[in-house]
Amino acid sequence: MREERGQITGGAVIYEPVELWGSIAGKVRVIEGGKLYVRGAIYGDLIAEAGGRVHVFGRVTGKIIVYPGAKVIHSGILGKDAINKGGRLYVESLAQVGGKVKHKKGDTVVEPKNKPVTGSDWSAYQ
Predict the structure, then answer these.
(1) Is 0.85 surpassed by the pTM of this model?
(2) What is the pLDDT of residue 114?
(3) Which residue range forms the structural domain that includes residue 71?
(4) Which burial class, exposed, middle or buried, applies to 47 when counting CB atoms under 10 A from its CB (0-12, 13-18, 19+)?
(5) Distance between CA 56 and CA 105 in Å, rounded?
(6) Which of 28, 50, 87, 96 would give a disulfide with 66, using CB separation of 3.0 to 4.6 Å?
């Protein structure tokens, strides 16, 4: 797997396994054969097309758009909407979405937010 630790401007097309520790300024497309692990930041939109796989641990300031045949797991911070247009979108409970999760087609799962344990709930853990 290739690691990117620097800063890339002008967007990117991902067609192989890449682990992003740095940042990309612009639109990022993940196409057939591409696997992207975002641990850094994308300053723009993230688009997963057919055959693309993405796991966001870091930050995306724009939208995430998932097309048919793509899979995205969101565990980080998203500035705008997460839109599923026919792929598989999974939003973990600790993830933050600045806009809305929009389900047009495909499989969309949004884990419920974890509630802090307080008051009478605490006795169950003792």
Answers:
(1) yes
(2) 73
(3) 2-125
(4) buried
(5) 21
(6) 87
